[in-house]
Amino acid sequence: MPLLGDAYGKGSVRMSKVIRGRERHEIIDLTVDVHLEGDLAAAYTDGDNSLVLPTDTMKNTVYVIAAEHEFEGPEELAALLTDHFLSRNAHLDLARVTVEQRSWERLGDDPHTFLGSSGERRLGMAEQDREGTLVQSGIDGLSVLRTSGSAFAGFLRDEYTTLPDKEDRIMATTVMALWDYLERPSSFGDVWRDVRRALLDTFATHESKSVQHTLLAMGEAGLAACPEVGEIYLQLPNQHHLPVDLRPFGIANLDVVQQPVDEPFGVIEGTVGR
Amino acid sequence: MPLLGDAYGKGSVRMSKVIRGRERHEIIDLTVDVHLEGDLAAAYTDGDNSLVLPTDTMKNTVYVIAAEHEFEGPEELAALLTDHFLSRNAHLDLARVTVEQRSWERLGDDPHTFLGSSGERRLGMAEQDREGTLVQSGIDGLSVLRTSGSAFAGFLRDEYTTLPDKEDRIMATTVMALWDYLERPSSFGDVWRDVRRALLDTFATHESKSVQHTLLAMGEAGLAACPEVGEIYLQLPNQHHLPVDLRPFGIANLDVVQQPVDEPFGVIEGTVGR
Amino acid sequence: MPLLGDAYGKGSVRMSKVIRGRERHEIIDLTVDVHLEGDLAAAYTDGDNSLVLPTDTMKNTVYVIAAEHEFEGPEELAALLTDHFLSRNAHLDLARVTVEQRSWERLGDDPHTFLGSSGERRLGMAEQDREGTLVQSGIDGLSVLRTSGSAFAGFLRDEYTTLPDKEDRIMATTVMALWDYLERPSSFGDVWRDVRRALLDTFATHESKSVQHTLLAMGEAGLAACPEVGEIYLQLPNQHHLPVDLRPFGIANLDVVQQPVDEPFGVIEGTVGR
Amino acid sequence: MPLLGDAYGKGSVRMSKVIRGRERHEIIDLTVDVHLEGDLAAAYTDGDNSLVLPTDTMKNTVYVIAAEHEFEGPEELAALLTDHFLSRNAHLDLARVTVEQRSWERLGDDPHTFLGSSGERRLGMAEQDREGTLVQSGIDGLSVLRTSGSAFAGFLRDEYTTLPDKEDRIMATTVMALWDYLERPSSFGDVWRDVRRALLDTFATHESKSVQHTLLAMGEAGLAACPEVGEIYLQLPNQHHLPVDLRPFGIANLDVVQQPVDEPFGVIEGTVGR
Q: What is the ipTM of this complex?
């Protein structure tokens, strides 16, 4: 029976690197995933491992490359790694490296101390084949909420629809964004901060008729902020806040307290281009 | 700026259904995801929701369809749901429903009591467009471990390789399998049990030269067991058990105790066809 | 300002040990927590570490003791470890070691292959001071559900009570049990299996008027099954299955489908003695 | 067989409340746990539920009390709730309510938009019996890291000790703090911010000879900042960053890259009083 597809790699290689400047330190905290494709079938069919670079070696390589090189952000480390694997292994066709950066915020002006409570992540991805390299950047875990200016009304109704129109509701989501580049920016970090700012500002101020409606506006704002960016994919879960019905207890106002629920959740997706 | 792609749906609709037979009960415990694509752009571009069936309605629909119909397994419920959405909504192009079934094992012969401690899940998926419907089945969270008969040696070495050859190691993984069908089987449940049994038996007895080597054998065994199945995709994380070096404490045998680690982990993938 | 209390230890030391019999293997998969108390104040007050055994040494000690000794279950390993720490460190007053054993079920008759998908855990704990040692055993993560024979009615009502009486409901919980001993049993494992069986049988067959009602019956059954056991503490979360109201859709039966929810949940506790 | 102890309650009641000021909104996002003790034995022994207030009613009560009252922080809501349950239920001896507040940070000057990515939580607890009420406040999930000024050397060594002395290491922890009060403060929120600030400043600047050493200094600083506070309990997991040994690859510096690990971890505890 034929092997129709194959791939392998290493997941969740965690690494922190301290940049020890004379006056102050920086901390870079990364989780790296490596994925390789190529002429790997003999391992499956014959137990012939002669072209199988161990995933343990991938882990070591992440540490060595990260130690030996300066890199501005996760995108650069990802590209250093895909280039390393492809340039040294003629039997490989494709290498994809995904790097997730945990943010550590400097504590005031302290030169050596950082707050790391945020669940937000910066993403950098490089996918390289024998034709070239695709670089993507992204954001994950960016949790936002609006208490006003968000409606959902006039939607399609069928006999299973019970949701009432809402002219003003809580809108809460955890932004996942991923974008590619028309050209290499002078600083991936600057683009990241500019896209993030545009997404947040639009989420805050857009007169929203639905999550879909705001998603497009956010994507457009991200593109407008950064001419180097080509397309932006956004995934916005709709994290529902259910009004608690307190009328049995003599409280008429439906919007006084709400119950946030994790399950189920809406999922709204879209890709915005130029 | 153009909207290049869009989709939406509902995630993690949880449901349990009790089938109350005269002598004994059955419990079906499901988590359903709904994903729809179609003529949805006006919601993004104009805030026009007139073609947006609320995700809350998708949730209600899952409950109604599950209550009104008998279905043999997650695949049948998934197909009932995709058919419901596509047949009633001319503006939709595609519906994909994924159903994850949690297993509850009957406690002895008790007619009404079940053990649910297992993390294993049965998967059923239907993806329907205007051409037809693709049905897939799968397994997730099936955790297995072998203490013998698994080697990894003779692999590619470079200057970052420190892993020694091992002729006999612990092999541990959590199986994720997904397969499609050449024809509709008389019972999705029978296929599921047969594929599962073939995967487990092969994992247990294959003389393994690598996870890749065993993956192909497992896929072949699954196909051999079920003529209705077309292709099997397998994802086998390599959940490492690191030998603890006790030589500093006068214990020479490297294999007495091992440290299981969650991170990092290998990832081995492959698709086997006929 | 005075230091009013102090303690330290190591959490989540993970270890697997393979017992290689001639014909077949056993696998023991444990997570160990070590907690020490004693004359440790100088570390806090003066930065004097001369009586601080590093937590890294605790980890090494877990591995060495586990490698050098045979032990029947988590209780015996826990007691070996507390004895090790107290007998060698005159400055310590108390050592508590908690061992959580993950169950791996043998795959059929295979001598080397195991299924580990269950979330159930066996617990063993030893707490030793200069007077003696307390040993406890337990169960965690044992998920069970009944579809009949469970009522909750006639409860206290106030103006915020909306819950209707139910004569027949789904009762689902994840059992956490912890017990001590009047005397050392000949086999901790036999006691564990007997208590577990008694808890399950009672959960299945008790005519339940509430989770509280069944909790006491379960505890009594556990004590009746094992004369060596002194007291049993049980914690039974009430994992609610909310009936989905399908009357708006023309389905009158409230009990056809239910929505399992993780949050909020009831918590019922009790200790049963002789 | 006697019932030696009993209690029950409701866990994880989630609630958000929007305070709609004329110019801007506030969002309060809470998770509430209720625990009750008292004359509850008849439910266990006889299935007599006449004194069992349903946990569903506890949930409703949380919503009603939160809707009807203004409260400055989680402590005040907790005390309103314990008072409610004890004053209306003569059969209860004790009520304990724990409230966990998720922080939502205002996005710039926007009146209605908030960032909620932080995993940090503010805690408030009230435990009331027929003698009075104990109020505690706390912090959980406050993740901090220092890249300099932290040593661990001169510790106790035995034959299982392999850890080398370190004069300068990464110190990372996730602060859990809990404190009580000598007198009711004019603002729980002000105390919370002052204790938090004192803990962080001390973590950043203390010349640390161990986590224990810094724990005491942090507790002392918290007490010094807030005269109303009585005692502070601190739990500081030592979240290890293992130096990656790159010497096999020609990189001598052990501190270039580190591997953060979740398991195992040290646990350092202490209570500081006046």
A: 0.95
